[in-house]
Design brief:
The protein is an alpha+beta fold and about 850 residues long. It has four domains: about 1-30 and about 120-345, Rhopdopsin 7-helix transmembrane proteins; about 40-115, Roll (Pdz3 Domain), CATH 2.30.42.10; about 425-575, Beta-Lactamase (2-Layer Sandwich); about 635-840, Histidine kinase-like ATPase, C-terminal domain (Heat Shock Protein 90, 2-Layer Sandwich), CATH 3.30.565.10. The protein is about 60% helix and about 15% strand. The strands form six sheets. Strands 2, 3, 6, 7, 8 and 9 form a six-stranded antiparallel beta sheet that branches. The longest helix has about 70 residues, at about 560-630. The protein is elongated, with a radius of gyration of 47 Å.
């Protein structure tokens, strides 16, 4: 399948190359037509839509033509602009003598002019070279990139159209025949409309497609170049074939519209590139766009510096127009680099040096112009000697100023525009300062990764913590893009650290104790090829503490010695930070252990005291009423009453002892629960009945509500009974003025909930979760006077967890609390199987 796709791509590329060859042939023919372009041997100026002779000349018959004559027509074609004159000349062969009409004081003068060549060989060579560069870059991009690369295809189309625009520009449309000239002019007009369209399209797909609706946008925009090409081709055909100035003026009007479309498209495209650069977080994409910006700026900037600005002062450029044309070749080359091999050169360095020397040269030209112009104004009339001396002085001054000026510009550019170029000494200070303030391994590791990626943009970086007593030991800290490979990376690093991976020789010239593991020697998995190097770092005891994993640089350049030194410095600083954090952690741990032991001793004392108090109370009651019963004076009714009290206190004592024993079993993880089907309504009724003695003794008003008589659950009856008893006992203990308890059993979606509502002292919001922890009690006067061991609600929470249920304390609208103890209904219990089943609890 893959081979078939490759063959299809090859066929399509072959067809495209055939089309390119046809365009190349037409372009070569167009260059010859440009060379045959003719011109009149006159120096003219345009004044109020009139071509005025600015210099006296002699016609082909030797007649003197004085300046200020108006050129009215050439070979019978009326003239009102340079474009009209160019159109008239393009239809005439070089060397031909043609008639011309001049207007002098409303009198027509006839003259004969011998046409000369419009362009010299130097210009033809420069234009041909530029055209070949454009064509070659387009072909190389097509061959180097796959067909599915939309940016490459769009760029190829743009270069092909630009080649046609350069080679088929206005030339002789009658050489070698009229039909070839007409064809070339139509192709040129279409190319002029297509180039901005392809450029705008290119900005939507490079360096990545900006929107999924690109094709719709391009299709809508394509209407403009198609319409312009059709209209320009139609008007050009009539203008050239009929040699009509009227049709040519129509062509020129539409061509001006095409120029506007060209300018708007370029501005919009540059805006697109700027938007892509600002939004892109990928360094490789930003590098590609820098090539684009460099090419886009260099051509126009050269034109402004060497042509436009000098012309403003001297009416002539510093360099010939042909050289400007050659400088424009930078644009297609930089675009090609950005698509195919953006990392072939360091674009940041090119940008930096170009900016420095460009600004320096601009400043020097400004100083030279100011000195020359100011001196000329002071001297007034310039003689040859004065001019030479003035030029010499200006040149010496600007030469002396160039070097210090360049240094100042360099500092300004480095500080203002190229902060990414790292001052490695300053970077080391920043990294060391930030690591000193790190309070945890995660913070330090993430800081190191971010700092390395900030100063040395790499495709991947991670930090593996190896041999420490910290909780993070064995953890890999890396970017989000590689988190899915954490286990694979950790396994690979551990195999290296245990001597199962091959190692490179020690890194020379940097750190003799540092070794780098390279992918070519140790990576057997293709999925780990993104790892470029693994650098282990050792602590004071020579044990490896951390490993820094680096991917390849985004620019695909090798690491420089400064960058490697920064990496090694960062790793060593990180190791020092780890040792400091580990020492602080050990000190805190020892302090916490000491505090915990002290707290456990206090809890132990409190627990023993509470158990003694809670056991002593029912024993005192039992002893008291047993002694009363021994007195024969007590009546039968009193004897029954006292026996009930003794029985109730005995049950209370048994529950206290069971709580202590169950809690001990839970802490050891040996508490066993026997789960079986049971009716929760009946179970809760029996619990309320069991607790009637204590409720009556404390003068409680009770209410009961059961939504259904049969509510089956899968549970341990004794455990549920114990949980309910503990919650009711808790309500009795923490109810002061209002003695009220409501017990309800209701069905709620997948749960059956037992709720216990009291009007006691309530629970502060911040304590609602804490009360379910062992030995935790509310710190209020009532809790101090009521006793309690602080384990009842912890047992309730454990029972709820074992039954896959939940327990929560909800505040009432008035006073008090509602405890909600929920169990899964029989149909929704995940562990339900037919028959009885035993479950061992986990440690608390």
């Amino acid at each position: 399948m893959r081979q078939e796709i490759v063959q299809d791509n090859y066929k399509i590329k072959r067809y495209i190359l055939v089309l390119d060859a046809i365009v190349l042939i037409l372009g070569i023919a167009g260059i010859f037509q440009v060379y045959q372009k003719s011109a009149v041997p006159l120096k003219l100026e345009l004044r109020q839509d009139r071509l005025i002779l600015s210099e006296q000349t002699v016609d082909a018959r030797g007649i003197i033509l004085p300046e200020s004559l108006q050129l009215k027509s050439l070979d019978g074609i009326p003239l009102t602009s340079f474009e009209d004159l160019e159109f008239a000349c393009d239809g005439l062969n070089t060397g031909r003598i043609v008639s011309a009409e001049f207007l002098h004081r409303e009198e027509i003068l006839h003259a004969e002019l011998k046409l000369t060549r419009f362009y010299g060989w130097f210009y033809i060579i420069a234009a041909g070279s530029l055209a070949l560069v454009v064509f070659a870059v387009g072909i190389i991009v097509l061959l180097k990139r796959p067909l599915y690369d939309k940016a490459a295809l769009t760029f190829h189309g743009m270069m092909l159209a630009a080649f046609g625009m350069i080679t088929m520009t206005w030339g002789s449309y009658i050489y070698p025949a009229l039909w070839t000239g007409v064809l070339n002019r139509i192709i040129f007009s279409a190319s002029y409309a297509i180039v901005p369209f392809f450029f705008l399209w290119f900005t939507f797909v490079f360096p990545r497609e900006k929107t999924p609706h690109t094709l719709r946008i391009v299709f809508a925009l394509s209407v403009i170049p198609v319409l312009l090409s059709a209209v320009l081709g139609y008007t050009a055909y009539h203008a050239l074939s009929e040699r009509s100035i009227d049709w040519f003026n129509r062509y020129e009007a539409w061509f001006d519209i095409c120029r506007i479309f060209f300018a708007v498209s370029v501005i919009a495209g540059v805006g697109n590139f700027i938007h892509s650069f600002r939004k892109s977080a990928d360094e490789s994409e930003r590098q590609k766009l820098k090539w684009i910006f460099f090419g886009t700026v260099t051509g126009p900037l050269s034109f402004i510096l060497f042509w436009q600005i000098p012309q403003f002062f001297t009416s002539e450029g510093l360099v010939p127009e042909e050289l400007i044309l050659i400088l424009v070749a930078v644009l297609p080359l930089t675009y090609g680099f950005s698509i195919v091999r953006y990392h072939i050169f360091d674009i940041d360095q090119i940008f930096r040096r170009s900016t420095i020397y460009g600004l320096s040269l601009l400043a020097v030209l400004g100083i030279y112009t100011v000195i020359l112009g100011g001196a000329a104004m002071l001297i007034g009339q310039l003689t040859v000697i004065n001019s030479v001396m003035l030029s010499a002085v200006s040149s010496v001054v600007t030469a002396l100023l160039f070097q210090p000026l360049r240094e100042r510009v360099k500092d300004l550019v480095d500080r203002r525009f190229f902060m990414v170029k790292v001052n490695f000494v300053e970077a080391q200070h920043q990294i060391a300062a930030r690591l000193e303030s790190a309070t945890g391994i995660r913070q330090a590791a993430e800081m190191i990764s971010s700092e390395i990626e900030r100063f040395i943009p790499v495709k991947f970086s991670g930090l593996y913590i190896h041999n420490t007593h910290l909780p993070e030991s064995g953890t890999l800290f890396c970017g989000d893009s590689e988190k899915g490979r954490n286990l694979e990376i950790i396994s690979f690093i551990r195999s290296i650290l245990h001597g199962q991976g091959a190692r490179l020789p020690k890194l020379r010239g940097l750190n003799k104790e540092t070794e780098i593991v390279h992918e070519n020697l140790v990576l057997s998995s293709a999925d780990l090829q993104f790892m470029h190097a693994v650098i282990p770092f050792s602590g004071a005891n020579e044990k490896i503490i951390a490993c820094l994993i680096l991917g390849e640089k985004k620019s695909e350049f090798p690491l420089s010695s400064e960058e490697l030194n920064l990496i090694l410095f960062s790793g060593n600083q990180f190791v020092m930070a780890v040792e400091r954090i580990e020492l602080e952690y050990n000190l805190r741990f020892e302090k916490e252990i000491t505090a915990r032991l002290k707290e456990l001793n206090e809890l132990k004392s409190f627990f023993v005291s509470s158990v003694s108090h809670d056991l002593k109370t029912p024993l005192t009651s039992i002893k008291l009423f047993a002694e009363i019963l021994q007195d024969s004076k007590a009546g039968e009714e009193d004897r029954v009453k006292y026996l009930k009290i003794i029985q109730g206190e005995t049950e209370r004592l048994a529950r206290l002892i069971n709580n202590v024993l169950d809690f001990a079993r839970i802490e050891k993880g040996i508490k066993e629960y026997s789960l079986d089907e049971c009716n929760l309504t009946a179970l809760v009724r029996s619990v309320v009945l069991m607790m009637q003695y204590q409720l009556q003794m404390n003068a409680f008003q009770t209410e009961e509500y059961y939504q259904e008589e049969d509510m089956p659950v899968y549970a341990d009856k004794d455990a549920i009974t114990e949980a309910c008893v503990n919650i009711i006992a808790n309500a009795i203990r923490y109810s002061d003025k209002v003695k009220y308890l409501k017990v309800s059993v209701i069905r709620e979606e997948k749960y059956i909930t037992i709720s216990f509502t009291d009007r006691g002292v309530g629970i502060p919001p911040e304590k609602r979760d804490e009360i379910f922890e062992p030995y935790k009690r509310l710190s209020n006067p009532l809790s101090k006077s009521t006793g309690g061991m602080g384990i009842g609600l912890a047992i309730v929470k454990h029972i709820a967890d074992v039954h896959q249920g939940k327990v929560e304390a909800v505040p009432n609208e008035n006073d008090g609390t509602t405890f909600r103890f929920s169990l899964p209904s029989l149909s929704d219990h995940k562990k339900f199987r037919s028959g009885k089943r035993s479950v061992f609890s986990k440690k608390m």
